């Protein structure tokens, strides 16, 4: 007897409920995948629930069964993207011995993510002011910033990093350097290596020649 068959025989287990949940999650993922493409192609403001539904091949009402609004779809996409990026960053840390090398690994991961998701990052940056004003949505990337802040605190405790630096401020600065600064500054950074070197120099050494 397979494990799934054994589970079906367990008291209180309803295989129909499991099937419904799986179908629900699959439909939700289809909507999110379509929305990500529509937002990237049209921008968040111009994108519509109708357009997302059409991309999936379902009615608009079906989208609303899963998400209350276009803003909720964007929030969910940002949260899932942050979790995926967090998992990638954590996976790189195990091979690093010092706080500085761990931070360098995180920086490399952030830069790779930015260039692999250029159009999507533009959507997120454009909508960032809107989301910063809503407290219940500020945790979208909070877990990533907390990770960086913890690494900085670790380096400070080991005497590796300047104890005067405020970890949360420095963590926020790292994300601004990678994601926001290139978009605001315009030209000058066109490759991953250029972005990594520029961000690394400013974050770890500042702008002076000391």
Label the CATH architecture of the largest domain: Orthogonal Bundle
The structural domain count equals 2
Spans of at least 5 consecutive residues with low confidence? 1-7
Percent of sequence in beta strands:
under 5%
What Rg is obtained from the alpha carbons, in whole angstroms? 21 Å
Shape field: globular
**Element-by-element helix/strand order:** HHHHHHHHHH
Largest sheet: none
What does this structure look like?
- This protein is an all-alpha fold.
- The chain has two domains: 67 residues, Homeodomain-like (Arc Repressor Mutant, subunit A, Orthogonal Bundle); 137 residues, Tetracycline Repressor, domain 2 (Orthogonal Bundle), CATH 1.10.357.10.
- It is built from ten helices and no strands.
- The longest helix is centred in the N-terminal third of the chain and has 28 residues.
Explain the layout of strands and helices.
Blueprint: H1 3-8, H2 15-42, H3 49-56, H4 60-66, H5 70-93, H6 99-116, H7 118-132, H8 142-157, H9 167-185, H10 192-205
Helix pairs in contact: 2-3, 2-7, 5-6, 6-8, 6-9, 6-10, 8-9, 9-10
